[in-house]
Structures are given as structure tokens and as C-alpha cells.
Specification:
Length: 117
Amino acid sequence: MNSASTGFAPLYTITVFVLMAVISAGLRALPFFAGRWLKHSSTVTRLGRFLPPAIMVLLLLHTLVGLAGQTNALLWPWREVLAAALAIALHLWRGSALLSILPSTALYMLLRSPLLG
């Protein structure tokens, strides 16, 4: 059997995988090379200050609004609100995104676990 009858072309498949790897590696390396030119841009500096809190607020609103639509009116989403409050408190206290996200995620997972109902 040749490759035409089975529909498998090894050279084509290898070429596609190599091209995908080269393009993926290039796209991942691009910010490191472009960083030299973008580091002193006022627009990038402004976006760097504005976007992280904006993204966190949007994710929080998306979560709470989505839960409000899914939850019974009698069941207030207390787990989500408690985890969000912990994240906000830790972020205001220390100003570290990692310190805010990890403990609040762990608390949310613990509260959602079957052990606590």
C-alpha cells in the first residue's frame, strides 16, 4: 500500500508539525524581542497599570452575574462572595496578585468540595 491509498502522507504531516512548532515558538518569543522597543512606550505603560485590575474586575463581575442567573433566589452565592472578599482583602493588604489569587482559589475549592456540602 502506498501513502496515496491510505490517505497518510508522512512528509506532509512532518512538515505541518515542524511549521506549527516554529510558528508557536516564534509567537511565544516575540514579546521578549519586542519588549526592548515597547518598554519605553507610554501606551504600554498605561495599559500595564490599567489592564490587570480591569481584567480582575471583569472576571469577578462575570462570575457573580453568571451565578446570579443560575442560582435559586433563596440560595445566595455565599461561597463565591466569600472567596472574592478574601481575594480583595489580601490584595488591599499586600498588593500581590499571587497572594490574592492562590488562597482565595483554595478557599473557594474547599468551600465547593463535597466535604462541606
